[in-house]
Amino acid sequence: MTDERTPATIEPAAAAIVPAVVARFGENAAERFFTFFTDNIRNPNTRAAYYRNAQRFFAYCGDRGLELRDIKSYHVSAYVEELAQTMAAPSVKQHLAAIRMLYDWLIVGQVVEINPAQAVRGPRHVVKKGKTPVLTEDEARDLLKSIDGTDPVSLRDRALIAVCLYSFARIEAALGMDVADYYPQGKRWWFRLKEKGGKHHDMPAHHKAEEFVDAYIQAAGLKDQKKTPLFRTAIGKTRTLGDRRMSRHAALKMVQRRARKAGIATAICCHSFRATGITNYLEHDGTLEKAQQMAAHESPKTTKLYDRTADQITLDEVERISI
């Protein structure tokens, strides 16, 4: 399913994309199910996740001989309990959220009258600290130094890591940048990041990030290609770049490969640079309020999840145990 699909194309493809439990309820139900994903959810990652969740739920119902009109709250509760046996609480809560939102959409479309998931409670999940692996200051420096910068691909890798590290950017926001989104204002250069919900977040470029991005743009010949992707895919093993935007999957593979080469044992991911940057900023007397603003978080509680300044337990403290 792609963004270009419209409700007009649902009839010939309905059997392939709409769960049988929904399709058997009629054309209106099938179309309403389809438009929930095409018209109601704009984020492609959320769309894909919710589509998988909906397919799994209705397959569960179908396996138990339930039709759309038969599904009650206790069926949803039983499904949630089953998921909780093998899934973490956040994943179960995401499944439940998808079912609730989909049923609300079906109600508005006059397909069903009640939402059986509305009263169902998900598993309790309280998060006080994020799980994203964080690099130490030395590890982050070693990683950047290990990238030789002798060709456009290595310069791209170093620049991408620097943007995420020094501007607290999500990998999706960094990869979504065009060349024009790195721009001068006054005496400094800035990054324009496309954040969640279609928001634009402008961040001044740290002098090291500016140095790395400048070197990359010059080597890749991107200076006059303002409306094209800033971070691009590599062409095989030629060490040259193509025209297409780099994907999240390719970025993750690159980060893992660069970490191994730098001898970093920590199992990092693309999001690690955002968490590392925030933690390092707070370690050097930065304020939570400013970190929240720089990271474009709606709530300081979210920013606090990235604060790992209390993670370091010194050997002296451990040796106080006198058993």
UniProtKB/TrEMBL annotation:
Listed GO MF terms: DNA binding
Gene3D superfamilies xrefs: 1.10.150.130, Intergrase catalytic core (1.10.443.10)
Residue ranges constituting the Core-binding (CB) domain according to the UniProt record: 24-107
Keywords: DNA integration, DNA recombination, DNA-binding
Domain annotation Tyr recombinase: ranges: 130-320
InterPro entries: CB, DNA_brk_join_enz, Integrase-like_cat_sf, Integrase_catalytic, Integrase_recombinase_N, Integrase_SAM-like_N, Tyrosine_recombinase_XerCD
Record SUPFAM superfamilies: DNA breaking-rejoining enzymes
BP-aspect Gene Ontology terms: DNA integration; DNA recombination
The keyword Nucleotide-binding belongs to this UniProt entry's keyword annotation: no
Domain of life: Bacteria
Pfam families per UniProt: Phage_int_SAM_1, Phage_integrase
PANTHER family listed in its UniProt record: INTEGRASE_RECOMBINASE PROTEIN MJ0367-RELATED (PTHR30349:SF41), PHAGE INTEGRASE-RELATED (PTHR30349)
Family named by the database record: Belongs to the 'phage' integrase family.
Protein name, entry field: Integrase
Native source species: Tautonia sociabilis
Upper classification of the organism: Bacteria, Pseudomonadati, Planctomycetota, Planctomycetia, Isosphaerales
